[in-house]
Amino acid sequence: MDRIIYALTLVVLSFLPLEAAEMGDDGLYLQPFFTESFFELVDDLTEAQEAGKDLMVIFEQKGCPYCREMHLVNFEREEIINHLTENFLVVQLNLWGSREVTDFEGVVWEERELAASWGVNFTPTVLMFSLEDGTPSEVFRMPGYFKPFHFLKSLEFVSSDAYETQVFQRYLQDRFQELADQGLTPDVW
């Protein structure tokens, strides 16, 4: 009987995270690579571009299970964090938040109003911005949670400027083919 209890305890413990991600007072997960922003998006994009990066805006909400997954799975992978920090300035916003954010046109919104105006319906929603002919432009959107392989490929899709010449689905197909040519099968689930 003791062996059964011991075995069940090990099984239950194996499903618990080894280390819980830090959470802020607003119920959103915190990451050391999130930018301390004044929520002036033109300034954030300018800062990103001056550093040779693009701007990433992540909308999350308290209690979101897929936000939790993004933090506890995707943001625990070294290859994702390395690519993210080398290529993006990251601003986190609360889907239901009331902090003031100034958008690219100079309009001041509460976070929740900005989310609605940008058509953000799911969390997490990750938006990536770059300057296109001197104009701030959304170049890619992840509407909801992407598993690590697709998350990393979306980062590479934007940082390599592949979005300028092909759609994301074609880009993914090309990456799958490259891996297949090397005899590799990516872990997509």
Task: Describe the fold and architecture.
This protein has a domain at 19-146: Glutaredoxin, CATH 3.40.30.10. It is 39% helix and 20% strand. It contains 7 helices and 6 strands; from the N terminus they run ααβααβββαββαα. A 4-stranded mixed beta sheet has the order 2-1-5-6, sandwiched between helices. Helix 4 (78-87) runs parallel beside helix 6 and helix 6 packs across helix 7. The longest helix is centred in the C-terminal third of the chain and has 14 residues, at 168-181. It is globular, with a radius of gyration of 19 Å. It starts with a helix and ends in an 8-residue tail after the last helix. The relative contact order is 0.13.
Outline the biggest β-sheet: 4 strands, mixed
**Quick one: overall form?**
globular
Low-confidence stretches: 10-19
Query: What spatial order of strands do you see in the largest sheet?
Result: 2-1-5-6
Number of helices: 7
Compute the CA-based radius of gyration.
Answer: 19 Å
Helix content: 25-40%
Give the mean pLDDT: 91
The proportion of strand residues reads 15-25%
SSE-based structural type: alpha+beta
Our measurement of the CA-to-CA distance between the termini, rounded to an integer number of angstroms, reads 36 Å
CATH topology of the domain at 19-146: Glutaredoxin
Number of strands: 6
Write out the CATH superfamily name of the domain at 19-146.
Glutaredoxin
Highest CATH level, the class of the domain at 19-146: Alpha Beta
